[in-house]
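Batch manifest, entry 17 of 40.
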Amino acid sequence: MTKGEIIAQYRNMSDADRSAVDRWLKANIVIGSLIAGGVVLMALAGSNANLGPEKAVAEAPQSVGAVQAPLSPFELMSRLAPGELPVQQVDEPF
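Output type: structure tokens
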């Protein structure tokens, strides 16, 4: 259907059918606007989030009076004994 055919068909509809189509269009506009607004809000909220692997820092248990800087992943792994590493030996690759 071309644009002219759609307009001609709309003009040939009864008043009840026209009002039903108008209500349907208005409802779709409202729902579409709400969804688009939600997507925009989620995009704005996600752009302000400071998430990522470069932001992750491991923290060591704090003693009562001492202030200690968080440990890096390398420092945490270097404190583990070789037998304590969370690695499993696998004989078969799959």
